[in-house]
Amino acid sequence: MTKKNHDADVAFIQALAELLRENDLTELQVKRDYGADDSLNVRVSRHQQQQVVTQVSSPAPMAAPAAAAPAGAPAPAASETSDDPASHPGAVTSPMVGTVYMQAEPGSAPFISVGASVAEGDTLLIVEAMKTMNHIPAPRAGTIKRIVVEDGAAVEFGAPLVILE
Fold this sequence. Notes:
Keywords: Biotin, Fatty acid biosynthesis, Fatty acid metabolism, Lipid biosynthesis, Lipid metabolism
Region (Disordered): 45-93
Strand content: 25-35%
Helix content: 25-40%
Number of helices: 4
CATH class of the largest domain: Mainly Beta
Largest sheet: 4 strands, antiparallel
Protein name: Biotin carboxyl carrier protein of acetyl-CoA carboxylase
Shape: elongated
Number of domains: 2
Organism: Roseobacter ponti
Pathway: Lipid metabolism; fatty acid biosynthesis
Order of helices and strands: HEEHHHEEEEEEEE
Mean pLDDT: 75
């Protein structure tokens, strides 16, 4: 029985590694419970730091085209750096890889909008990861200054979601 579980676990881990590669993900974590005292906790990740940095900064292309036009002036380039959502002190980042949803279900009102006030713990949006809907709470009370992601967009771990001031 133990040998059978071991073989199945090895096949499961290999399938996770292939899923990671095929979907160009950086990390997957899964826990399988077999019984009260028997479980398997697997974390598969790629340790290519250059790719992670590139993927985390990928939501910034919105700022890059605006800076491309006035590239001759040094002052706008400096404002682009300060306009980077990932470096903003009020940035709320994604705690996981997944898909962003701005409302609880299709057709319902979004959780937040620019200019809306939120209390600490209010749901800002949902990140779906492995068919689990994870509500992302406001870390503190404040006003939504900017929504960095779009509904249905894929996000990486650490990617900025909203700017909260």
